[in-house]
Amino acid sequence: MIRKMPIIITGGGQRLGLACAKALVAKGYSVIITYRKVRKDIAALEEQGITCIQADFSTSSGVDLFTTHILEQYSALGGIIHNASEWDSEEECSNTALLMETMWQVHVFAPYRINLAFEALLCAGAEQDGQADIIHMTDYVAEKGSDKHIAYAASKAGLANLTCSFAKRFAPCIKVNAIAPSLLMFNNSDDDDYRIKALSKSLLRKEPGEQEGVLAVQYILDSLYMTGRTLSLDGGRHLV
Ligand SMILES: NC(=O)C1=CN([C@@H]2O[C@H](COP(=O)(O)OP(=O)(O)OC[C@H]3O[C@@H](n4cnc5c(N)ncnc54)[C@H](OP(=O)(O)O)[C@@H]3O)[C@@H](O)[C@H]2O)C=CC1
Ligand SMILES: Nc1nc2c(c(=O)[nH]1)N=C([C@H](O)[C@@H](O)CO)CN2
């Protein structure tokens, strides 16, 4: 069932967020994306009728600016997909206090504040469409930890926990679920050795691509009976 109410995708300027935005608008959804850096795809998205809002969630004021803008412009929402994310490691960032602050800010503080701010809009959307959705993009390492991305993994664990709390708080009109990929797509900067090692971590040994994440989003949006749960997209990594 296609929602009439707009769905917000944060971090929609590239990769998974961009793929989700294109897939949903192609199916007839009304889509809003947030982006931080101005990228080549933004103009094309606007031509497709996608509302593109610049937002930086690395500060509390940046989150407040975004929520205020949406509350002024919209009276109902069909959903929000918290996809925006920084993937920084302790190796790359010597200031580990700042690293943990940033990870927590983007992956926990921002989704927490945005979910609370948009509760009434999402309930109004559920009145129109029959249901509304919050989807948190977490990560396999939220459960298992990561020795190279400690702050990142901890913040994704915090986001995973928000899934349970908001599912309880917002039921029955808003479903709240998570998607936990292990590997969806590499970054251009990933060298061959890194790629070979990453592929060997799962049973299926493949880089599925962003469409694997798009499929999971579509499943959750279509589901009538899933909330407080996580879809794991990990190629059997938990059995290696
Ligand atoms: N790619 C993968 O294999 C995996 C991905 N995931 C998760 O899936 C989701 C999508 O992954 P992927 O597409 O690779 O994500 P990206 O690394 O491409 O990040 C998505 C977007 O987040 C935005 N973003 C980063 N920091 C901020 C900020 N402070 N404020 C606002 N926006 C911000 C970026 O915007 P800009 O570029 O404009 O700065 C970027 O376009 C993420 O949550 C990720 O953690 C989990 C496991 C594996
Ligand atoms: N925000 C991001 N989070 C993650 C990314 C990414 O590119 N951006 N990539 C991964 C890796 O794919 C990792 O799961 C395996 O190499 C994890 N999170």
Question: Can you characterise this structure?
Answer:
The protein is globular, with a radius of gyration of 17 Å. It has a single domain, classed as Rossmann fold, CATH 3.40.50.720. The protein has a 7-stranded parallel β-sheet, sandwiched between helices. It has 9 helices and 7 strands; from the N terminus they run βαβαβαβααβααβααβ. 47% of the residues lie in helices and 14% in strands. The protein is α/β, with parallel strands linked by helices. The mean pLDDT is 97. It starts with 6 loop residues before the first strand and ends in a 7-residue tail after the last strand. NADPH dihydro-nicotinamide-adenine-dinucleotide phosphate (NDP) is lined by residues 11, 13-17, 35-37, 55-58, 83-87, 106, 137, 139, 181, 183-185. The ligand Nc1nc2c(c(=O)[nH]1)N=C([C@H](O)[C@@H](O)CO)CN2 is lined by residues 85, 87, 139, 182-183, 187, 198.
